[in-house]
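This section describes the prediction task in plain terms. A model, or a person checking by hand, is given the sequence of a single protein chain and must write out its three-dimensional structure as a string of tokens. No templates, partner chains or ligands are provided. The sample shown here is typical of the held-out split.
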Amino acid sequence: MKKRLTLLGSTGSIGDSTLDVVARHPERFTVHALTAHRNGDKLVAQCLRFRPDVAVVGDAETAARVKAQLRDAGCSTQVAYGPEALVQAAQSGQCDTVVAAIVGAAGLAPTLAAARAGKRILLANKEALVMSGAIFMDAVRDHGATLLPVDSEHNAIFQCLPRDLAEHGGVTKIILTASGGPFRTREPATLADVTPEEACKHPNWVMGRKISVDSATMMNKGLEVIEAHWLFGLTGDRIDVLIHPQSVIHSLVSYADGSVLAQLGNPDMRTPIAHALAFPDRVDSGVAQLDLAQIASLQFEKPDYERFPCLALAMQALGAGGVASAALNAANEVAVEAFLERRIGFTDIGRTVQAVLDDLSNYTPSGLDDVLGADADARRAARAFIEGRPHPTPPTNRTSSVNRAVQ
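The expected answer:
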């Protein structure tokens, strides 16, 4: 039988890659629902190609525009809007598989709803686990949902672990690889002058602006450490991070007998998406086969916490437990938004998160309301910290020095 998909966040980079794989295998997959926030024109184009039953957007104005365009094109897709419509799409009995690709905290509620509806969840929204790890994993277990990681690193670990994870099969640790982003070799003292354009220019991956900034600060890798803790049931001291600039080895698993298993592939998100969509089968993803002879050499180095303080802050939050990870994520989302709007400098992202964590009243959440309350409190604290900082001076004429620094 065909898998019927609801794709949460269809107009982002993960959505694009997912639909590319889906289009290659019409005999395997069909689309029940597509969702976007305000990118109505792109959503309309996707609906006209994939003919979903339902399309969901963020607000009434966008919904009216999308509905009119689809009607004029003779497309019968029903249009809804708002958070409740997202939840309904995720838990609908008309789909069996939910691809969770909404960026940030906005993806938590529909992804949790999918877990409580017992869906097969392809998780690309790491914030769902970062914010509400125990609550989310309990929902997966209690309602018989299936959780398959789509992040390239976690998908790589999933492929390298034994199928039965109950005893971890002699696993001693897992190793998440990181490209190091665009500032891996740049002097830390010069990072205060980084522009949004520079931060969003990832050397290996094509991603959205928010996740690109997270990669540049390595907060993304810190969030992945927290996600890996919940996905694979390992404590923080058994999760390492290793910088690997080529992004060919996507992650590794170390075993008690001295074996280390790694998953390799070209840096293209269609590979982990295709693996998760077809699991346990393997299907063509559209990605070229890896040519190691052409690559010739692979590099590895330990992360520099002076250059990447956000990675250290994420590990600190994981160790603290409670709502610290939810606060970390919320403060980072606010800070990254402010940076992209040029209201703070690049290094102020880490300072903002640090300030919020320093003032955090930490506690163990008893339910989703506690998690959302901690998220709201951290956002208010982050905005207050940012409002108290001077606006950065726009950098000028640094292109040549920046290019030298990242080569």
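For orientation: Residues 394-407 have pLDDT under 50 and may be disordered.
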